[in-house]
Design a protein that fits this description.
alpha+beta; 12-stranded mixed β-sheet; 4-stranded mixed β-sheet; 34% helix; elongated
Amino acid sequence: MTTDPFGTAALRADVLRSWRDSPTRFREDANAEEDLRLGGYRDRLLVELAQNAADAAGSGGALHVSVADRELRVANTGAPLTPEGVTGLASLRASTKRTGASVGRFGVGFAAVLAVSDAPRLVSTTGGVGFSASRTQAEIADLAGPAREAEARGGAVPVLRLPWPVEGAPPEGFATEVRLPLRADVDPDELLASFTDQIPGLLLALPALREIRIDDRTWRRADESADQVVVHGPVRSDRWLVHRESGSLGAEELAGLATEAREATAWRICWAVPLDDDGTPIALAEDVLHAPTPTEERVSLPARLLADVPLEPDRRRIATSGAAEAVLRRAAEHYPELVRKLAPRHRPALVPLPGFPLSDVDEVLRRGVTDRLRVAAWLPGADGEAVAPVSASVLDHVAPELARLLREVIPGLLDAELSEPGYRRPLHVLEVARVGAAEVVEAVSGLDRPPEWWRELYEALAVVDAADPTAREDLTALPVPLVDGRTVSGVRDVLLGDRDADPDPAALLADLDISGLRIAHPDAVHPLLEKLGAHRAGPAELLDAPPLAEAVRTSVSDARAGMDVLPLAEAVLRLVERDRPRDWLGALGLPDRDGDVRRADELLLPDAALLDLLDPVNLGEDAALAVLDDDFARRWPAGLLRSLGVLDGFAVHTEEDPTEPDDDFADVREWWSEQESAQPDHWPPPVFTAIRDLDLVADDAWPRALRLLVGEPETAHALRDPRGYPAWWIARYAVLAGAAPRAWRLPGAEGLAGLYDPVPDVGVDESALRLAGIRAELRVLDVDDAADLLERLGDPERAVRPGTALRAHEALAEAVACGVVDPTAIDPPEQVRSVSGAVVSTSNAVVLDEPWMLGVLDAPLVVAGGSPDGFDAEALAELLDLPLASEENTMRVAGRGEQRPWTEVARVATACELLGVALPGGAVDLHDELHVSTAEGQRRVHWWVDTTGTLHAERNPDGLSRALAWSAGEWGERFALAALLADPEATTLLR
């Protein structure tokens, strides 16, 4: 007879009585069990049985799964089945597991067996109990209400409400075995296969279980340390890094839970992340919350969370409550402690990356974990200390040496390895500050470090420059230690020494106090500096450095203030010796014979050719020039000293694109003004060229000075421009035989005879005399020229030939007409030279502008500059302040002539053809004798043009030729026309 150790008969009687008394209760039980079987506990068979096994074992538990004769058997170690346990199994809403550390809380998980079996049973060392759908159906057959309800359900009844005692014992070594005859629609092999996928996770989630075996395949959990769990399986082993925390929930946090749920005040969480064989974390992409066995709350954290969190009755979802929020909050708070257990380089792998939350729980956890990770110290710092992301920064580029150098400079700087691209996303999520080139420069600005440290920094930054060309602009602001002990910001004006040079050009200036000269300390020099804009400090670069130029410019005043500028002078000479001079080197202070310091371009070599030419008052202390100290001059090559501006002979000065006159040169403003007036459209000139110190030459030394000037190609070239300043000045202010050069003419310039005297023999050849401004031809170059020429023309002591006077007046008229001479700048002469060569008062003279007027004017009173068509009579009249002859014309023709067209005048057409002159149109009035009436009476003339423009001419070659030439616009051909009108033959032109 079967014993009933668990009192199942009484349990059945109670249930059947409740069903008989209330068929609705039957219906409720049937619905509840159906909900659990079809909903909450579907696909959770092994999970629920494993949880029960873990609860029974407490620790070190084992679970053995097998199939025999289509019966699934699951045996476990630990505590055997008890009457209270049987009562719990037969109750849908009550459990004996109200307190303690049990996994299940609701006593309903056993309903999962209904997914595969209609007749589950358990055999234990204390007895056995079974459930059966068919036996339950038989029991209710006599119960009218339940029977009708079962029939309405197609025969379905609640299986787990009526237990029966069964015979049997668990396998040896096990306390209990669940035996589930499988329904026909369940495939045993598929069922076992589904179990194998769940086993590793269950062993991780249920520490009380050490082993799960399916037939001959075994999975074992090994706690290798407090932080690592390994699940060894038949095919592979899974290693997990874990962090566990526990505590108790407060009353406020438990509020809102059911009565029995509030009794479970303890909370436990475990974070776990799988590791590979090298200890590298394998971040999870998608998982579910484990409580501690799998729920259906999807999460996307890199690590798995196993937590004692209140669940809904089906154990698939979190029960919304203050307790659940508290447990999740504590889980997030302890997440960084799991992260810290990883090797520093692997820690960022556990940062949740951006993405959409997979559930409400996922959103809460992701936010909490990320917030906590930002403030917890867990990132590896460059100094070896852990750093919180909120105060951390990371280099933009992988540069271990740079990180080493900056770890004490930039607080919270992370290990250089975290600059690898793979870390960029997690660090971005944590809002870790990036340290680019600009930030590095800002961090090191103001630091006091030895030059060797700076060179290491440049070496480290060379990696950044090579990887990111855009960083170069920021790096140009890097500090650079200088040879004088200062550290300056900015690379571009820094000069780099050359240790291999002998001597190093930069070393020449290293000990000099030159403000603004930035020479890098030799121990800090690195190729990166040159890439960033620093310059190699060769002689050329040093000479081009503005601070050196400024030091040279102030060297004389510095010397007079008590500074020793001789080292500067010697250093500059060394540099120039190896390169080339600069324009500003003339300001370099050098010692003179008197013990003073003068500008180089104010000094003469002790044997300078110029020394014998200078007026003594212009040489020496407080004078314009001095002589270079003899000892100093002997130490340096003369050519090198000359290149600095020290004088030997005359020096040429040039200035590109001048905008105003240079007052360093005598009378330059006068020259500038004259040239500007003469050529306003081409002024200022593109180049100003001058020869300095001309005004210092002694009067009696000018012949020798001229020989020196023309003997040097550079000065000779400067004199060749007659409008240039040197030629202008010498022509006016040099002294030859007691007068300025332009007061003389060359001996061979006979065209100027009478106006200018030939220059005496001063021992200078003609080419030099020409360059000095001795006149070779009649030219009016400026107002002074014009005034001097007018004075000479009006001098009765001068025997000026008429032709010379004509040409002189023509040159004067042209100078006025071209704007070279402003008539208002000259006082009109009192006497003028007439066409007869006589000198007459300007009160009686007129300027001839109409040639026919000569027939009635007295030649001694007529001033002309040649033929009226060849010079500007009005310009000459304005210059001389004389009236034009036409302005005095009140005369008229006496009598009437015969008007004839030119085409009908005898011999006119032939004469024009022979000369190639176009026959003019119009007509001429012909007279046998032509007279005009004047105030003094009638005067006979050969031709005339009256006030109406009518031409008049006598019937003879003299009159006709002039009228014809004037009418045809060929005044210069009048004498040829006269000959042809007298003898219109070709031979006339050939005689």
